[in-house]
């Protein structure tokens, strides 16, 4: 049985600093970012807004997609956000349990 996975992008503001990550439990992971429970990049730069995510049937697929996207330039990532979320709304309410 496979476990679903998510690739997601956090931001500190519209067109600001962005962070690309992968998770098996998206609500839990975003909660951790939003509340500063994860030391590192998102905590340092205040990336607390979930601005984009994509679900995969398999966590390994999600990890592979994340690795591909990490090689993208910033503009490609911004276009991905803009297609799904042109207002750069915080999508937390859409995924929070």
SSE string, helices as H and strands as E? EEHHEHHH
Give the N-to-C terminal Cα separation.
24 Å
> What integer value in Å does the Rg equal?
13 Å
How many structurally independent domains?
Answer: 1
Unreliable spans are none
**Can you tell me the CATH superfamily?**
GIY-YIG endonuclease
CATH architecture designation: 3-Layer(aba) Sandwich
Order of strands, main sheet, comes to 2-1-3
What is the SS-derived class? alpha+beta
Percent range for helical residues? Answer: 40-55%
Q: In terms of quaternary structure, what is this?
A: single chain
Number of strands: 3
What share of residues are in beta strands?
Answer: 15-25%
- What is the name of the CATH class? Alpha Beta
Tally the helices: what do you get? 5
Q: How is the CATH topology named?
A: GIY-YIG endonuclease
Major beta-sheet overview: 3 strands, antiparallel
Shape, principal axes of CA atoms: globular
Sum up the structure in keywords.
3 strands, globular, 97 residues, GIY-YIG endonuclease, alpha+beta, 5 helices
Describe this structure in words.
This protein is of the alpha+beta class and 97 residues long. It has 5 helices and 3 strands, in the order E-E-H-H-E-H-H-H. It has helices spanning 26-34, 41-45, 59-70, 74-84, 92-95, and strands spanning 5-11, 18-23, 49-56. It has a 3-stranded antiparallel β-sheet with strand order 2-1-3, with helices on both faces. It is globular, with a radius of gyration of 13 Å. The two termini are 24 Å apart.
